[in-house]
Amino acid sequence: MKTDWRERRHRWDTRYAPYAYIAPYFLLFAVFGLFPLLYTAWVSLQERNLIDGDAARFIGLDNYVELLTADPHFWNAMGNTMSLWLLTTVPQILMALGIAQLLNRRLRGRTFFRMGVLLPNITSVAAVTIIFAQLFGRDFGLINWGLELFGAGRIDWQAGTGSSHTAIAAMVVWRWTGYHALIFLASMQAIPTSVYEAARLDGASAWQQFWRITVPMLRPQIIFSTVIATAGNMRLLAEPLLFNPGAGAATGGSDRQFQTAALYLYEQGFSKFEFGYASAIAWLLLIATVAITGLSYLAARRIRTD
Amino acid sequence: MRRTPTLIGATLLAAGLVAAGCGSGAGDGKTRITIGLFGNFGYQQLFEEYEKAHPDIDITDRTASYSDHHKNLAAHLATNNGAADIEAVDVGYINQFKANPGQFVELKADVKDRWLDWKWEGSLSKDGKQIGYGTDIGGLAICYRRDLFEAAGLPSDRDAVSALWPTWEQFMATGKQFAAKAPAGAKFFDGGPTVLNAIVGQAPTGYYDKSDKIVVGENPDIKKGWNLVAQGVADGLSAGLLHSTPQWNTGFKQGQFATLACPAWMMAKIKDQAPDTAGKWDLAAVPGGGGNWGGSYLTVPKQGKNVDKAVALADWLTAPEQQAKVFASAGLLPSAPKLYSEQSVAQKQDAFFNNAPTGKVFTDAARALKPQYQGPKAGDIQTELGNAMQRVEQGKQSPDESWDQFVADVTR
Q: Residue B93 burial by CB count (10 A; 0-12/13-18/19+): exposed, middle or buried?
């Protein structure tokens, strides 16, 4: 029965073709995402030298036990990661909201400014970090020069915990604020003007309009941006690594004051060749990232839509 | 027809990718030998010379920073992919790599006599496999700024300067004299970690004993050096710069320090970083005498496609004749002792360093050098020791606190 066959094929087509269309992504993910993930899990159960896989020894959960109970450097790195996460995510979102609000007005050269805020995002992270490291230099940095001009003392930015975190957060915020601002801007333009007109008739100030209308209407984008920023900041590596170049780069400062978890992973894996231990750090970092991302999702969801 | 340029561009790009995918020797019939280096090995002219003598060889070098180079090499060995045909390895990392000699081609021992015994043994694995031919050794001297010494009322003649500091205690005492009349912005030495590395390099025992046990915590020579340098820092003699960082590079240009512990390879760094200071530098003997800091090896990873030709090139580059040429051009101290008595090496002077007799200073230093056993993670411990001294310089910890934390960190 020819028509029957054709009909059936059509049914299969509509039912299964979508899976075929999205299959390439999942195949690629399986090869480049899932497999490394599972392989890392396997390696994390071994005592294994980076360049001598043959001598690997299965040790169960020992790496995890050591990390969680007996490694102060790991907890130090996790603490730094949390601190940098707060110092980057919160200002990033707030400043992006402000910039988007400004760009949403009628101003001369609007397209120029809108494209301009994205520029930091497309520059090379290595170049940005090297320039920022110069700006934050102790003896000849521009920022210390400015501080001195205003009568404040010089700061050894790399030496302190707070100062080094501030410098690194400045790099991340500078790089990503424009990206989030553009996302917010796009959604702001989709908010119907009638809503604002109604609010103005009711006597709402610009400030009230922003917090009572704009921000709640942007809730999905704020959630998206928070999740993206959180996931990005949990694996912060290039900025702290390049902030302190030289032989000791992987330790993140003289007292590990700005060593992030990802940087500690790098140190263990590629400086000490502890492949198994580094893999265990990777898995703990993954779990922490999922947990923190979940928390920040819940926090951002609390923005009221009224 | 506006699209044509794009099309041509895309085609060229695709062709390029295909060619790159084919790897070595595509097209012109030459074998390409890649060589991974860090810093300045002074090899550029030698590559040209070798290519002229071997028209079928095309040498491509790629140079990275010290730590990037070694970490990349580790990653390439781990994944069995991506290493250059020849990879340079510094003495601070050679022990980590020679612990897994299976990753490298075992090099022939018939040329063993070229090198100082300890240089040869440095890259010999526990089971007797040779993984790297020696290039240079560090030796030790002190580079100093004549102009800053004069400004501070100190003698600037190199023999008189050497006579100021037979010991490190006298070196620090000279520092105090310097600090009393120093020009604004100039400190006596660049940073505590640099000076401490030189002192460690002179000790008979370093971070490890010969059974690979970490003994740095009980090593009286290193603790004595630590106290001395920490005192120097407290006396305001240090510019507080960590060597091989951008701030340190700026320090050369700005004249932030008057002395610098100088292995031979350090002189090449000064020339690279501050060419404008030519003639202002000079070279004096190192306090304490002898000692070594740094020096490298050329290894041939097994994963390479042109292993035999790579071995031949590494063999040629590390032969005494080539080491002599590198000394003449870049000032890297040969690890081949027969050169120490050759006129061309022993009588070399360096115009950048006010015609200092670098040949004599460094061949003397190499002869006085007592080899120190390097353990598996000597490079990492050196980094931690530098961090520890930086904590003192940054005022984060007292010298005792920082030392205790250092010992706890490296023995944990």
A: buried
Chain B (70-129) residues lying within 8 Å, Cβ to Cβ, of chain A: 71, 74-75, 77-78, 96-97, 99-100, 102-103
CA distance A215 to B77: 51
Six-digit token string for B362 = 């460094």
Q: CA dihedral defined by B67, B71, B76, B78, rounded to 10 degrees?
A: 160
Instruction: Render B328-348 in DSSP notation, one character per residue.
Output: HHH-PEES-GGGGGSHHHHT-
Q: Say how many CB pairs under 8 Å bridge A and B.
A: 89
Residues within 8 A of A (CB atoms), B 347-386 only: 377, 379-380, 382-384, 386
Determine, for residues B387 and A254 on separate chains, whether the beta-carbon distance falls below 8 Å: yes
ipTM of the complex: 0.86
- What the block records as the tokens of B372 is 């120190």
Q: Are strands B281-284 and B141-145 parallel, antiparallel or unpaired?
A: antiparallel
* A64 closest CA partner among A251, A236, A285: A285
Q: What does each of the 412 residues of chain B score in pLDDT, given as a tens digit?
A: 344 444 344 444 444 444 444 444 445 788 999 999 998 899 999 999 999 999 999 999 999 988 889 999 999 999 999 999 999 999 989 999 999 999 999 999 999 999 999 999 999 999 999 999 999 999 999 999 999 999 999 999 999 999 999 999 999 999 999 999 999 999 999 999 999 999 999 999 999 999 999 999 999 999 999 999 999 999 999 999 999 888 999 999 999 999 999 999 999 899 988 999 999 999 999 999 888 999 999 999 999 999 999 999 999 999 999 999 999 999 999 999 999 999 989 999 999 999 999 999 999 888 888 889 988 888 889 999 999 999 999 999 999 999 999 999 999 8
Q: What is the pTM of this model?
A: 0.88
Tell me the CA end-to-end span of chain B in Å, nearest whole number: 69
* CA–CA dist A84, A79 (Å, integer): 9
The amino acid present at B14, given as its one-letter code, is A
